[in-house]
Design goal:
By secondary structure, the protein is mainly alpha-helical. 73% of the residues lie in helices and 6% in strands. It contains 3 helices and 2 strands, in the order ββααα. β1 and β2 form a beta hairpin. The longest helix has 51 residues.
Amino acid sequence: MAISKMHPIANWLRCSGNDYHRTWDRVCQLRDADYAAQKFDSGLPSGAKDWFFNRQLPELIKNDFYRKQTEVRIEELDKKAAQIEKDVKPLIESKLKEQSALIEEREILVGLLNG
């Protein structure tokens, strides 16, 4: 399979020339529909991601070339999510400890006022 370009919607997916052109045509159709509806947002046209995930990708991953790339993408997403959790967990724990100390002090103060 000849490799052409990165997928216009999912830039992690390399496409054959034919699949790229079919996708680009669909993106242009969706863009034109947005313009006709007076939607001038930047980025992908509305419905493009839904079309990709619900219609195109299920068909593409029947081909091993696309299935393997999707598996690699899943691994990348897992690694990124794990790294974010690793980065954020100490901050969250610190903030929860700080919150607990504030609540404890508040309860002491309220207890003193209610005597």
